[in-house]
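Same chain as my last thread, 142 residues:
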Amino acid sequence: MADSSADFTISAPEADQQRVLQEWLDDAAQQGIDVGDVMSISRAFDGYVEQTVQTKAAERGDPTTFCTMIGFAMGEHLRQRSSLEWRVVTDSQGTDLALTTPDESAVLFPSDPVAAAWEVAEVGWIPQWVENLLVGLTDSPA
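reply #2:
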């Protein structure tokens, strides 16, 4: 998680942003992903990566939508199991939904680690990554 800085503005999601988040989570559910089960999220991402790797490069679709959906599913999983909260973060690059600590001292854009793993076709990483983050949040001083 990145430390938040003066370069960010952080606010609570408004109704339209909450609706967007819910649409991503609904898309995940339609793909058979249970945000309450980290293994469900991992299986979906790993299966997508493995299927894509086996597809000829010229026939592959753009992974952005799928990776974003996985990021929101993983983010919601983290929110349900920690003190992290969905927030709207605006910086010089635009506005996006992110998770923050309650005091907004740290920010996580959950699609970022998903995109990083996608770039190297890494599979099997989500459960340990989530566990490490949750442990880190628990061990952090209050």
